[in-house]
Amino acid sequence: MKNRQSNIRLGIFGFGCVGQGLYNVVQTIAQAGIEVAKICVKDREKPRTLPTSAFTYDPQELLQDTSINILAELISDADEAYHIVKQALLAGRTIVSANKKMLARHLPELITLQQNYGGTLLYEAAVGGSIPIIRTLESYYSAEPLTKVRGILNGSSNYILTKMEAESLSYSLALQQAQELGFAEAIPTLDVGGYDTVNKLSLIAAHGFGATVQPEDVLRFGINTVTEADLTIAQTINSRIRLVATAAVDEDNKLTLRVLPTFVTEADELYYVQNETNGVSIDPVFAGEQFLKGSGAGSFPTGSAVWADVSAAIAGYRYTYPKAAKKTVAINQESELFLYLRCTEEVELAPALKLRLNLLQTTAGDSIYSLLIKERELLRLHSYLSDQQVFVAEITAEQAKLIALQSGVAEAMIY
């Protein structure tokens, strides 16, 4: 674990997929001069690839050791991660984190702690996997206003959708494969339910638009109710379904945030983002659209992103949140969305909702509708639609017309 030339000591919390990835990267880049001082883990009985002397089971052994220059928090428990990061920042320490749930929930407090106590917190690996999205927004576009940031931010969900689409796998089988490859957790709700993507979008909103939002206020639908039928319908109109996160400002500088399965076409860069890959488009006002693409899951891609933060921290880099100081955007939940809804014919939709639906197609016991609705109203309907196992996706009116025409529904019926 020791490098003779080391002058930086690193303490790691967690030795799962990301922690092992970071450790392997550090050992490979010998010239970096990094010594891994200790790795803190919870389970004493779990078999590991390093000798027991490499580990400690007490977080305070790292947090109280002032000879450790940089800490890396890479555990899955958001509450425990919060306490680790908070204690480090209260002590003015430098720490990097990959826990997007913890960061999204506590970001305003963590920013204040950095400002008040002089610590540094970096978290590139928490958002785009190997894609340097936070650094790009924070540094390159710190002074230029953005109109939109939009992308695929969850490699697990994208892998599942790709396998279902390309190999005609069922949702359950594609999920099983993702779990076996380490792309999805044993309890995959955070990934497939869209929660993970919402947490990442909350961090993008802070750096790209200067808005701090609570994840529960972001419109969210996941892919956990998608079926092969939905993907087949998308293919018949030359589209693919992807779980897409969107942060966009309108002409009144009001910010819309949403995470929805979306029908994307060949004209969209996200159409070509496959397997566990992530992809993000950035639309600055002056520079024109930029597109970033890279691995979104796996030990080395995520470990590499953490290593990038460690390296940046060694060089003295820190976030300045330049757009947060301006506070020029307001959250908008009044924008309208055009939706695709699919449910079994046995589902009893609320009469007030059913009156507003346009029937596109009935097939194999399913009914497929389109709906124009405001985001605020859709937020109120979220629990109801989820309980009824209704698959909800964003679609264009033109795409809805194509689906309807294929089944003989008159085009005039689609608004």
From TrEMBL:
Keywords: Amino-acid biosynthesis, Methionine biosynthesis, Oxidoreductase, Threonine biosynthesis. SUPFAM superfamilies: Glyceraldehyde-3-phosphate dehydrogenase-like, C-terminal domain, NAD(P)-binding Rossmann-fold domains. Residues 132-310 form the Homoserine dehydrogenase catalytic domain. Pathway: Amino-acid biosynthesis; L-methionine biosynthesis via de novo pathway; L-homoserine from L-aspartate: step 3/3; Amino-acid biosynthesis; L-threonine biosynthesis; L-threonine from L-aspartate: step 3/5. GO terms for molecular function: homoserine dehydrogenase activity; NADP binding. The keyword Amino-acid biosynthesis applies. InterPro entries: Asp/hSer_DH_NAD-bd (IPR005106), HDH_cat (IPR001342), NAD(P)-bd_dom_sf (IPR036291). Its EC number is 1.1.1.3. GO terms for biological process: methionine biosynthetic process; threonine biosynthetic process. It is an enzyme of class 1 (oxidoreductase). This is Homoserine dehydrogenase. It comes from Pontibacter burrus.
